[in-house]
Structures are given as C-alpha cells and as structure tokens.
Design goal:
Layout lengths: L1 H21 L12 E6 L6 E8 L6 E10 L8 E10 L4 E4 L2 E16 L22 E14 L8 E11 H9 L10 E9 L1
Antiparallel strand pairs: 1-2, 1-9, 2-3, 3-4, 4-6, 5-6, 6-7, 7-8, 8-9
Amino acid sequence: MTRKLIIMIGFILINVMLVAQDQEEKRRNWIVPRFINTQYAGGIGNYIIGAGYFLNKSQSLRLIIQYGFTPKYKTNKNLHTSTISFKVLPVKYKPKENISLMPVVGIAVSRVFADGPGTFTRLPSYYPDGYYAPNAFRFHLNLGGVFQYDLQRNSCVRALEFYILTTTNDLYAKYFIKYKPIKLTDIFSMALGVNINF
C-alpha cells in the first residue's frame, strides 16, 4: 500500500513538471504548483514530498502541501502525515546575481495517520482524563533559512532552493511550559529540504 502510494505521488510530480514545462508564465493554470518539495525530518515525517505555490509576485509568501512518511523501524508502526504550511520569506539578500539568501518563518498544521491504533484526535474513553494528549493534529512553528540558486529563465527549472529549518509544535511547547526539566533546546528538531522551482 505504501509503495503504491509513493509511486503514484512520484508519477503525479513528474506530470506536474511536464505540464509546467509546456506552459508560459502568464497562462499558467492556478492549480499547477510552482515548485515541488522534498524534505528530510522536521516533525512531519522522516521522508517528505510535496508541492507549493507562490502567493505573491515576489515569491515571499508560500503555501505548501506535503506528505510525510515515517517507517515502522523508526517507530512501532508506519506513520503517514499530511501537512499544510504557510511560509513567509520577509527579506532577500543577493550576494551574487543568481544567488539569494532568505530567512524563513512558517506555521503549519499536520494530521498523522498510523497503520493501526494509537493515533487519535480525542482521548479514547479507556484512558483516564489527561493521561495522553491527542496526537493526530499538530500545529508547528518553523524558523530557518533558504539558499536559492537561479538558473536560466528559459529552462524548465528556474531555481533550486536548499533550506534548513528548526521546528517545534504545540505539544512540545506545552511540555516545555509544564515540565521544568525540559529545556528550550529539547523541543526543537531540524529539517533539511530542497525546492525545485518552475
């Protein structure tokens, strides 16, 4: 099931690239993503793929839809995560004509699905109140930086972006506030990713 899903998503992403190659900038269909995304880690799965949209002309506002997969050898069961994130890149520094450096701030909401029981939106009745926090939905805060390398304007791929994020979520923030032994550094994780811009 998981293998078929990954193959199907791969075909969709290849199709998106081919469609994007054939269309001119001004006639682009709004539903066609402006970039594809791959990411490693970051609290929304071990291996993540997705697609995103630029919400303004300067490309500083972005909406990204992602699918994350964590195999059961990392946890006790396979985990599938769907995420919608909104990112802001407020400033662009250009040390060279085809290179840009940008800070990034983002928020996201994710939904986790597990192969088997153990993921829930409401605490099951067989647990005492407060025993576990519901773990299916998470709200995330992301901070990081993006390195963008611009390619030729007439090529299919217009730019490659490499990014690093530090991320936390609402549950970890709650633990930090509630339990004194937990340090600020304990609630953050890192993510590495690549965007291929059309």
